[in-house]
Design a protein that fits this description.
By secondary structure, the chain is of the alpha+beta class. It is 54% helix and 21% strand. It contains 33 helices and 30 strands. Strand 10 and strand 11 form a beta hairpin. Helix 4 runs parallel beside helix 6 and helix 26 packs parallel to helix 28. The chain binds ligand C2E and calcium ion (CA) (2 copies). One calcium ion (CA) binds next to strand 27.
C-alpha cells in the first residue's frame, strides 16, 4: 500500500508544474514516512500482547519526525537534481530514512526484561533495505511506461519489508522474572488506536490530495499534450529545446521536416550539428548560447545544414528558458527563409539590373512621385544637357528641374541669363502633362521629351537628344525642297509655295505675279564650254535672280535652264514692267566664269493673277507660254501673258494636231527658189522650200510648223518626204540644175541618215553631185560627233554640203572649222540690214573674204532689189538668192519648157 501510494504520489508530483513540484514532493515525503511509521507500529502492536510491551512516546514520535525529515530531504534532493543517478541517490536516502524510522521506532519499546540486538542482522537490514530503495526510486520516477513503475513499487515494498523483518529479527527480548522494569508509557491499545487513527487520517488526506491532484493532473496533462502536439505538430517552424550544455532534448515535426533528422536521430546530440564546419570551428554555436544568455535572445540569419548535407537559409532565434530563475535550457526556433532570401536576391538582382539599365540607357530619365516631386534621375540626363549631375536633387518639382537645367547649361555655355530665361519659358510652354514634345533648347541641342503618367499617380519623363536626327531631318527636308546645285526651291516646293500664296487673299494694292525665266543660249554654253561652266552659269543666274527678287518674292529652279519667280507686285503696268526689267537684267549679262567669257541671255514670261490664270497651274502654264513667245520674238526680252497669246497657243495646239495628219492627207508640197550667179543672173540651182496647204489655216510657211514638227518628232517623216520628193522632182527637170534641200538637226543625227540620202538618190536617179544639203550651225552643235560622221558619209556619196544662215549662230567660225563645207550661205538679215547698217555690210565683206581665203563659194540670201545686187557685185559675191531673182514657186526652166 505504502509503496503504491509512494508511486502514485511521486508520479503525480513529477508530472506537476515546476513551481508545485517541491510541495508535492514534500507532501509525498510526509505521507510515505507516516505510512511507514504507522505500519511499523502496527507490527510492533502485534507483538505487544504476547510480550507485554509498552512504548515510550519520546522515541516513538522521534522516529516519526526523523522519518518525515529523512523522506523530505531525500525527495528534495531528487527534485534538485533530476536524472537516474539522482533518483538512485534519493532512493538510497529514502532507504536510510525507512531504516531510521524502524530502528528509532524500536527504541520506544519498553519490556520487562532485556532487549538485545543482533548487530549483523541489523546492519544487513539497513544495507539491503537501502539498496532495494535505491533501485526502486529510479524505476518509480519513470513516467514513460507503467512497467518500471510497477517494478519500482515491488522494490520499494521489498525494501520496507526487508528493513522491518530483518530489523525485527535482530531484536532479542529476554524476560527477567520478579524484577519490575516496566516504566510508565502508553498502553498498547491506546497507541494502536492512535496509530490507526493517524494512519486513517493521513491515508484519507493522501487519497484526497492524490485524487484532486490526479484530476488536476489529467487536465494539465491534456493541455500539456495538446500544447505538445501543437508544438510537435508545427510543420513550418522548427522548434527544438536544448539543454544548458547545448544538447537537443526536444524536437518537433517542423524541425524534422526542415532538417531531415528524426527525433531519435537528434535527441541528445549537440545542436552544433546544424552548423557548417567553418562556423563550428569559429565557435559560433557556443557564442550563440552565450549571446542568448547575456542578451536574453540570440537572433541570427545564415546557412544551416540538413541531414543530407544540403543547406538552407535560416532565421534562428534562441532564448534561454528558466525555472524559478534557474536556467534549464534554451528554446531554439528556426524558420526556413530560403525562398524569401532567393526572392530578395532576385529582387536585388532586378534592382541592380534596372540601375545599370537606367544608367546606360540612351534617354535621360526622371521619375516623379504622385506629388510631382523627383524620386529618381538617371546619369544620362545630366550628360544630355551637359550639366553636372548634382544639380538634380530628389524632391524637386518638374519646373525646378527645368530651371536648374537651363540655368546650369547657360552657365556652362557662357550665355546670358536672359537667354536662359527665354529657353526656360520656351520649354515651359511646350510642357504638357502627358505625351511627346520636341523642343529646341538652343542651336546645339534639340530634345524630345516624353511624359507618361503611372498608375500610382506618379510620372515618368524620358528625354532624348535628337539634335543629330533633327539636323538630319532638316537637311533632308531642305534637300527634298531645294535644288542641289543652286540652293533655290525646286519645282515641287515652288508649286506648294505658290499654292499657299495663292490661297491667301493679297493686300488691296498688290497682285500675285509668276515669272518663268529661260536661258536662251544655255545649251550652247554647256556644249562649247563644258558642264562645269554651265553649272557655274546656273549658279550665277540663281544668285542674280535671288538678288533681283529680294524679300518681295521667291525664286526657284524648275529644272535645266528654266527658273521661276513668284512675287507680289503693284497693280499698275509699270509695276509689272519694273518687275520684268529686274528679272531680265538678272539673266542677261556678260561675265567671266571659270576663266571663260560667257554671255548669258534669258527670256522672261510673266503671268499676273487673276487675268493671267485662275489657278496656280494656269498661272505657271501662261507664264511659260509668254516666255516662249518672248524667246521667239525677241531674245533677252520679256512678255506678259494676255488673252491673245492664249488664243494663239490654242491655235498652236490645233496646228500640232493637224500636222499629225498632214502627210497622210498629202497636204505638203515643195516650192523652189532659184539660186543665181551674181555677175550674169544665170540660174544654176533651186532651193526646195516646204509648204503646208491646210484647208482651214491656208498655206503655211515652214516657220509656222517646222519647230512643232521637230518637237513631236514628225520632222523625220516630213524630212524624208521632202528629200525623196525633191530628188524625184529635180530628176525630172529639163536642165541639170543643182537641188538644195534643207535638213533639220534631228534628221542629221539619225544613224541611218546617209542611207536615206542614198535611197533618195537611187530611187530618183538624181546624180549625187546635183544634190546639196543645207544645214544650220545648230545642227553641228546638237551632237557634233554623230552629225560630222553623217556629213562625211554623205560627202563621200558626192553630195555637197552648205552651211546655212551663216553669221546668226553662236560660233559660226568654229562650225566652219569643224567640217569641209562646200558653200557658205550668208543669212538674209545681213543683206536686208546692209542699206542702214555699216556693221552688216562689214560682216558681208568679212564672210566673203573668209570664203575667198578658204576657197569656198559664198551665196548671199535675201536679194530683194537691184541695189542689193549692186552691193553684192561691188563686193564680188559669187552667188545670190532672193525675191529679186524669184519668189519660191515652180521651177523656171520647167515653166519655160512647159
Ligand atoms: P532658209 O533656208 O533661209 O530659206 C530661205 C527663206 O527665205 C525662205 O523662207 C524664203 O521664202 C525666204 N526668202 C527668200 N528670198 C527672200 C527675200 O528676198 N526676202 C525675204 N524676206 N525672204 C526671202 P521660207 O520658205 O519661209 O523658209 C523659212 C525657213 O524654213 C528656211 O530658211 C529653212 O530654214 C526652213 N525650211 C524651208 N523648207 C524646209 C524643209 O524642207 N525642211 C526643213 N528642215 N526646213 C525648211
Ligand atoms: Ca536654206
Ligand atoms: Ca537661209
Amino acid at each position: 500500500m505504502t509503496a503504491a501510494a509512494l508511486a502514485v504520489m511521486l508520479q503525480s508530483a513529477l508530472s506537476s508544474g515546476r513551481e508545485r513540484l517541491r510541495i508535492h514532493l514534500l507532501t509525498t515525503g510526509i505521507v510515505v514516512a507516516t505510512a511507514i511509521w504507522a505500519a511499523q507500529f502496527l507490527a510492533l502492536l502485534a507483538y505487544s500482547a504476547r510480550y507485554e510491551l509498552t512504548f515510550l512516546p519520546g522515541p516513538a514520535f522521534a522516529s516519526l519526525a526523523l522519518g518525515v525529515l529523512g523522506f523530505g530531504l531525500s525527495l528534495e534532493m531528487f527534485e534538485y537534481r533530476r536524472g537516474r543517478l539522482q533518483a538512485a541517490w534519493a532512493g538510497l536516502s529514502c532507504g536510510l530514512s525507512t531504516a531510521t524510522i524502524h530502528f528509532v521506532g524500536t527504541m520506544s519499546v519498553s519490556f520487562r526484561g532485556i532487549v538485545a540486538r543482533d548487530l549483523s542482522l541489523a546492519i544487513s537490514a539497513v544495507v539491503i533495505g537501502t539498496l532495494l530503495s535505491a533501485v526502486a526510486l529510479p524505476l518509480l520516477s519513470r513516467r514513460d511506461s507503467r512497467g518500471p513503475a510497477a517494478l519500482g513499487i515491488g522494490f520499494f515494498a521489498a525494501s520496507m519489508l526487508s528493513v522491518h523483518i530483518l530489523g525485527m529479527q535482530s531484536i532479542r527480548l529476554v524476560r527477567l522474572d520478579g524484577i519490575e522494569l516496566v516504566q510508565k508509557g502508553i498502553a498498547p491499545l491506546e497507541l494502536g488506536l492512535l496509530v490507526a487513527f493517524g494512519s486513517l487520517l493521513l491515508g484519507g488526506w493522501a487519497l484526497s490530495v492524490s485524487m484532486s491532484r490526479h484530476s488536476f493532473q489529467r487536465m494539465l496533462g491534456r493541455h500539456t499534450r495538446e500544447f505538445s502536439h501543437l508544438v510537435h505538430g508545427l510543420r513550418d517552424t522548427a522548434i527544438c529545446m536544448i539543454d544548458t550544455r547545448g544538447h537537443v532534448v526536444s524536437w518537433n515535426e517542423g524541425a524534422r521536416r526542415l532538417t531531415g533528422f528524426n527525433e531519435c536521430d537528434i535527441l541528445g546530440r549537440h545542436f552544433e550539428r546544424f552548423y557548417g564546419e567553418s562556423e563550428r570551428l569559429r565557435g559560433s554555436p557556443a557564442d550563440a548560447l552565450k549571446t542568448a544568455l547575456d542578451q536574453g535572445a540570440y537572433k541570427t540569419r545564415g546557412y544551416r545544414y540538413r541531414k543530407d548535407g544540403s543547406r538552407f537559409w535560416a532565421d534562428v532565434t534562441m532564448e534561454p528558458v528558466y525555472d524559478h530563475a534557474k536556467l534549464i535550457g534554451f528554446v531554439k526556433i528556426t524558420h526556413d527563409i530560403t525562398a524569401r532570401i532567393e526572392a530578395e536576391e532576385h529582387l536585388n538582382q532586378i534592382r541592380s539590373d534596372l540601375e545599370a539599365a537606367t544608367a546606360n540607357m540612351v534617354q535621360g530619365l526622371i521619375l516623379y512621385d504622385a506629388e510631382g516631386r523627383v524620386k529618381m534621375v538617371n546619369a544620362r540626363l545630366a550628360r544630355i544637357f551637359g550639366v553636372p549631375e548634382h544639380i538634380f536633387v530628389p524632391g524637386m518639382t518638374e519646373e525646378e528641374i527645368g530651371q536648374a537645367t537651363i540655368r546650369s547649361r547657360a552657365a556652362m555655355r557662357g550665355s546670358c541669363d536672359a537667354e536662359a530665361e527665354r529657353v526656360a519659358a520656351k520649354l515651359k510652354s511646350t510642357s504638357r502633362s502627358e505625351g511627346y514634345v520636341q523642343a529646341d533648347v538652343d542651336e546645339d541641342l534639340t530634345v524630345s521629351i516624353n511624359r507618361r503618367m503611372l498608375p500610382n499617380g506618379g510620372k515618368v519623363v524620358t528625354v532624348e537628344d535628337v539634335t543629330d536626327r533633327h539636323k538630319a531631318a532638316e537637311r533632308l527636308q531642305f534637300m527634298a525642297t531645294h535644288d542641289a546645285l543652286t540652293g533655290l526651291l525646286n519645282r515641287e516646293a515652288f508649286r506648294r509655295m505658290l499654292d499657299a500664296e495663292f490661297a491667301m487673299a493679297p493686300p488691296d494694292d498688290k497682285v500675285l505675279a509668276v515669272a518663268i525665266v529661260d536661258l536662251d543660249l544655255f545649251k550652247e554654253v554647256n556644249d562649247i564650254h563644258g558642264h562645269a561652266v554651265g553649272d557655274a552659269l546656273l549658279q550665277e543666274v540663281s544668285a542674280r535672280l535671288e538678288d533681283a527678287v529680294g524679300n518681295s518674292g521667291i525664286a526657284a529652279r524648275l529644272g535645266g535652264d528654266e527658273f521661276a519667280v513668284l512675287a507680289r507686285i503693284g497693280k499698275d503696268d509699270i509695276d509689272c514692267a519694273n518687275f520684268a526689267a529686274r528679272l531680265t537684267n538678272a539673266v542677261n549679262f556678260t561675265t567671266i566664269l571659270l576663266h571663260k567669257a560667257i554671255q548669258s541671255a534669258g527670256s522672261v514670261g510673266i503671268a499676273v493673277a487673276p487675268d493671267g490664270g485662275e489657278t496656280t497651274k494656269a498661272l505657271i502654264g501662261n507664264a511659260d507660254l509668254a516666255m516662249y513667245r518672248a524667246k521667239t520674238k525677241l531674245r533677252g526680252g520679256w512678255l506678259r501673258y494676255n488673252q491673245k497669246m492664249g488664243r494663239r497657243s490654242r491655235e498652236q495646239r490645233e496646228l500640232q494636231d493637224a500636222l499629225r495628219n498632214a502627210l497622210d492627207r498629202d497636204e505638203f508640197y515643195l516650192a523652189y527658189q532659184s539660186q543665181c550667179l551674181v555677175q550674169t543672173g544665170q540660174v544654176f540651182g533651186y532651193e526646195a522650200l516646204l509648204r503646208w496647204r491646210h484647208e482651214r489655216f491656208g498655206t503655211l510657211p515652214p516657220d509656222r510648223f517646222v519647230k512643232a514638227a521637230e518637237e513631236n518628232g514628225l520632222i523625220l517623216a516630213i524630212g524624208e518626204w521632202v528629200l525623196r520628193t525633191a530628188c524625184i522632182e529635180a530628176a525630172a527637170w529639163q536642165a541639170p540644175h543643182k537641188l538644195a534641200v534643207n535638213i533639220s538637226a534631228i534628221q542629221l543625227i539619225q544613224p541611218d541618215f546617209h542611207q536615206l540620202v542614198t535611197h533618195a538618190l537611187l530611187e530618183s536617179g538624181l546624180p549625187a553631185d546635183r544634190l546639196e544639203i543645207e544645214i544650220t550651225e545648230s545642227v553641228i552643235i546638237t551632237d557634233k560627233n554623230r552629225a560630222l560622221h553623217n556629213l562625211r558619209r554623205i560627202k563621200a556619196l558626192g553630195v555637197s554640203v552648205a552651211i546655212d544662215d551663216f553669221g546668226t549662230g553662236y560660233s559660226s567660225l568654229d562650225t566652219l572649222n569643224s567640217f569641209e563645207f562646200d558653200k557658205i550661205k550668208i543669212d538674209r538679215t545681213f543683206l536686208m540690214d546692209a542699206k542702214r547698217s555699216e556693221a552688216s555690210r562689214a560682216i558681208i565683206r568679212a564672210v566673203l573674204a573668209l570664203g575667198r581665203s578658204l576657197n569656198l563659194p559664198v551665196l548671199a540670201e535675201g536679194v530683194e532689189s537691184e541695189e542689193d545686187l549692186a552691193l553684192l557685185r561691188a563686193e564680188q559675191c559669187g552667188e545670190a538668192q532672193g525675191f529679186y531673182f524669184g519668189r519660191p514657186g515652180a521651177v523656171e526652166c520647167d515653166r519655160l519648157s512647159a
